[in-house]
Amino acid sequence: APGVYQLASLLVELDASDEASRILCADALYQMGWVEEAHKLLLVALSKNPQRSPILARLALLQLKKGFLYDGNQV
Predict the structure, then answer these.
(1) How far is CA 68 from the centre of its chain?
(2) Which of 36, 52, 60, 68 is the most buried (most CB within 10 A)?
(3) Within 10 A of 7 (CB to CB), how many other CB atoms are there?
(4) Would you say 21 and 15 are in contact if contact means Cβ atoms under 8 Å apart?
């Protein structure tokens, strides 16, 4: 996942409007366990295009994971 993240980050730098690279970055961050960073990156991508299903789906999955983590910490 770190190599994928580095490649996707480079692609984002080359073309900041490339949504696929942002999603790839977020997926790599998630796979590395950086859930908060992935969430922030998806929120930025969503702010640029609020009707994108792939972004909304990933945000929903991250929110579910965060909810389970928070509930687990409260037990």
Answers:
(1) 17
(2) 52
(3) 14
(4) yes
Show the tokens assigned to 47.
């702010």
H/E/C letters for each residue in 12-75? HHHCCCCHHHHHHHHHHHHHCCCHHHHHHHHHHHHHHCCCCHHHHHHHHHHHHHHHHHHHHHHC
Amino acid found at 22: R
DSSP code at position 16: T
What domains can you pick out in the chain, each with its CATH number? 2-74 (1.25.40)
- The tens digit of pLDDT for each residue in 2-38 reads 888 888 888 888 887 888 888 888 888 888 988 888 8
Instruction: Dig out the tokens for 28 from the structure.
Output: 């790599």
Q: Which two tokens stand for residue 14?
A: 């080359």
Could you say which DSSP state residue 49 is in? Answer: -
**How far is residue 66's CA from residue 25's CA, in Å, rounded to a whole number?**
18
Residues 51-67 have pLDDT tens digits of 778 888 888 888 777 76
